[in-house]
Amino acid sequence: MKRTTLLLLTSLLAIASVSVLALRTVHATASSAIRVERVDHVVVPVYGGLLLINDTVRISPTTENTTIEKFSIGFPLKYRANLVYSTAYDTKSPRDEIGLILDTGLGATGYYGVTVVFPDEARNSLYRGESYTFTVVFILSDLITSTPTIVNETQEYKFTADFPAYPSLPQEVSICNVTVILPQTTEYVPNDFPFNATTKDQRYYLNYTTTVPRLSQASTQVSFISENRDTYTCFSINKSTQGISIDANGDIHISETYLIKSKTAFQVDIIQLTLPRGATDISALDEQEKKVTSNLVDNQTNAHAFSLTLLEGQSRSLRINYNLQRENHLAKLDSQSFELKLDMFENLQNVLKTSTVRITFPEGATIQAFPQQTFNVQRQVFQESLSLSVSNFTWLQDKQWTFSYSYPILWSSFRPTIWATSLVIVGSIIAFAWQRPKAPITVSVVLVPRKTLNEFVETYEEKKRVLSELEQTKQKALKGKVSRRRYKIRKTTLENRLSALSKKIADLRQKITSGGAKYADIMRNLEVAEIELDNIEADLKRIEVRFKRGEISAQTYRRLLEDDLRRREKAKTTIDGVLLRLRE
Question: What is the largest CA-CA distance in the chain?
């Protein structure tokens, strides 16, 4: 009996061993099944202060008939807070994104990792023993610092970028080609890193090839200088609104407003922003409705330079108006159907922290198709529009939007007919009334529903309370009254709540504005007060920094502080006054 049992166990173990070996042949672990043949690590300091990192990886299986489904790549954990956006694509087809899972780690502490999930075609190629090349893109922020310096009695402006020297991978890389592409018309400042520097088209290209060990933790810095302080600038776009309208003739009119905050350690007088190709009739205004001059600086990206002066830490508003050529964006599908294609942020290499887009179609038009996962539709009596509210929007997302709508041919004559009919009716009434004794005329006024006004006020008050709680939580964290972990959790909760409230306020604001000139003026006054308040808060932080650095005296600091506090109180009073008017 014992011998029979022993033989049975031995047979089962043998079968299990064979099964394990078979499975290992088909589904090998990532470290043993994959060979990393080459990595191209390209780092680009983008105008505006972002870092764009492209890691192009070529892998191959160590043996044929091996199923490889995914691959992990990352960087040292200290850069995790700087990550804004990440995506991956097949290097042969850059427009085709492939699956990417964020924050998966690399199987060891001290790293932030993402996992690329290969499509079926790539899996099949690897199974046949062929190599496969893919690219992972990381956008990082707040890793470029600036300082003005004097060299040989000449004022220069120095920028230093800190970034992962190599990608962090689960296995060693025999060939890693590192390339850093510096901004145009800047000079490279050599350091200890053994870069080979070459120039092309007024740019420095820094190259270095080496072998990278498994799970690299290496970081490095690259510095560059310019003699012109407006050549390169660090700034953020904290808020943006885009109003797009299509008229009955198919002409496209755009109005964009940006709230821009400087992150450069000296005054700048020029801000470059890209506009869609074919933009015409360009004009710009600042927050005080003063004209801002602009000129084209790059034909390829359609970048324009706007003369907007910004001090360190200062926030200012810039509104840009322009038209788009309908031939490039609007196609007629049949007698009544049209297709609209927009590339609004194709070359805007910055992050829109909070962005609102509103597209208004001609009166009488009916929207037929639009990106439903992205846009919301609003309908009025004769007009339809689409709205979008997003956070942390980058130029790598949704490069092109496509819409279709129908517009009856006879609609353009609708309003002239109504006007002509109205004039005939009014003329008849006047003629009839002329023969009768005059009586008081009662004029009816269409008002925004009280429910909408109350909802706007309540939502706005809720937003103010959330902002106040966010600031109080921050102060408690600075004083050590709450733990860092608890602060991060609470901060994330409040910021998500704030984003939802901002989106709701934007929708309600549009409904109120459409109620007539009276409400439009009220909303305009509110927006001006909001921008003024943002500018004042930035000024308060800036003068505090200047005082701590010893750049201004205590007397000047108190005077500037009193002026800003007085302006802040005035802006808050204006906002409270607007809310009070809406309550009434």
Answer: 126
Overall residue count recorded for the chain in this entry: 584
Render pLDDT for 88-98 as a digit per residue (tens, 0 to 9).
Answer: 999 988 878 89
Structure tokens at 485: 């972990």
Domains of the chain: 28-226 (2.60.40.1730), 235-411 (2.60.40.1730), 450-583 (no CATH)
Cα 535 to Cα 541: distance, rounded to the nearest angstrom: 10
Q: State how far the alpha carbon of 96 is from the alpha carbons of 91, 92, 134, 327, 397, in Å.
A: 9, 9, 11, 27, 12
pLDDT digits (tens, 9 = 90+) for 184-219: 999 999 988 889 999 998 899 999 999 999 999 999
Would the pTM of this model clear 0.90, i.e. be above it?
Answer: no
Q: Tell me how far apart the alpha carbons of residues 95 and 114 are, in angstroms, rounded to a whole number.
A: 20
C-alpha 403/C-alpha 365 separation (Å) is 12
Nearest to 324 by CA among 280, 357, 367: 280
Two tokens at 555? 């007397």
How far is Cα 328 from Cα 341, in angstroms, rounded to an integer?
8
Task: Tell me how far apart the alpha carbons of residues 364 and 45 are, in angstroms, rounded to a whole number.
Answer: 47
DSSP 353-370: EEEEEEEEPPTT-EEEE-
Do strands 235-246 and 352-360 pair parallel, antiparallel, or not at all (unpaired)?
A: parallel
Q: Which residue's entry shows tokens 């005054």?
A: 267
Label residue 277 exposed, middle or buried (CB < 10 Å: 0-12, 13-18, 19+): middle
| Residue 18 to residue 168: CA distance in whole angstroms | 35
